[in-house]
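User: Predict the full complex structure for these chains.
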Amino acid sequence: MNPRRRQRLIIIVVLVALAGIAIGLTLYSLRANMNLFYSPTRISAGEASVGRSLRAGGVVRDDSVQRDQQTLDVTFTVTDFEEDVPVHYRGILPDLFREGQGVVIVGTLDERGWIEASEVLAKHDENYMPPEVDGALKAAEARRATPSDTAAVAERRTSGTP
Amino acid sequence: MWPIIHKLGSPKWFYTMSGRWLPFLWGSGTILVVLGSLWGLAFAPPDYQQGDSFRILYVHVPAAILAQSCFALMAMCSLIFLVWRIKLADMVAGAAAPFGAAMTFGALFSGAVWGVPTWGTWWVWDARLTSMLLMLFLYLGIMALRGAFASRDGGARAAAILTLVGVINLPIIKYSVVWWNTLHQGATFSLTEKPAMPASMWLPLLLMVIGFYLLFAAVTVARTRNEIIRRQPTARWVRALVQGGRHGL
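Assistant: Here is the predicted structure of the two-chain assembly.
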């Protein structure tokens, strides 16, 4: 390679590398703020401040959703399978909201440790399948499931969500 | 090796050769996109959770892939232009930019339309969405910078440098869903693992992605040909071409 071209190539590589390092360091120092939500474990550890707006993410615990028959009030528990956080919400839930589904909740934490949600977002996982395949999988699970491994089935169904 | 590179970098050779590829690119790209759309929108099975709204994927995913591929192509062309001063590379980079910007906008817009029914919101400042928005601004910035200089060469160099710096955003987009908690889900497809969807769903998507690539190639080649003529209207072969055209060739 002739010297002028080599010099230009070196200048460009150095420029891009320096810019990459600068951006990498910025993202690294902002890593706590780059996360969209707090996990229930971090909320239980007291990392989220009470009364301030926050986002929490996790999976809706099975059998925890309770709807008020008269109003749009709904309560449920969000879990990361280590810690649980109870949530209260009044409003219309997205289509994908259901037990065992990953969700992101925008709201405030109160002194009792409840989250008063102003917005509930459903997180979708990366798996797609036709309804009949899902039905067949569920039927197979039900046939196999014994009381001892029900938890493992629930775990598997929600894997892929945080 | 050098004679081949110089031949590849010659606008005249490119113009002649690409004239033969162009009908094939337009034709096959259109056919694949039409087939993929029909298959994906009408015949692929619905998703077990999202129902029919998952079909937005057949536009969203190809647009997002093309937006990033286009940026990678522009970065390669910019490097070739800056180091080897091959003008054709700069013409290709300039020709590809508007298509990439349109694809980025298409991915963001279709994602927003998809987000309303499934997530419950059309926008959230998570790492994936924000880095995609940054790429849209990079595209617009590159196009504006190219036109902001009095001399064409100055604008071309500035745009090339911005493109090469902006390429750092590509791995950030790709790995944003791995490095940080995001509302956007992780990748469904990877080179090493089985796709997380059945063939009846990903086959039409594959047609769409290949079709989008072919149409991208067609648009970029056609725009590069126009740029070649625009930059050297007095070259002897261009004049011969125009006179040949007048005589009905």
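Residues 47 and 54 of chain B are 6 Å apart (CA to CA).
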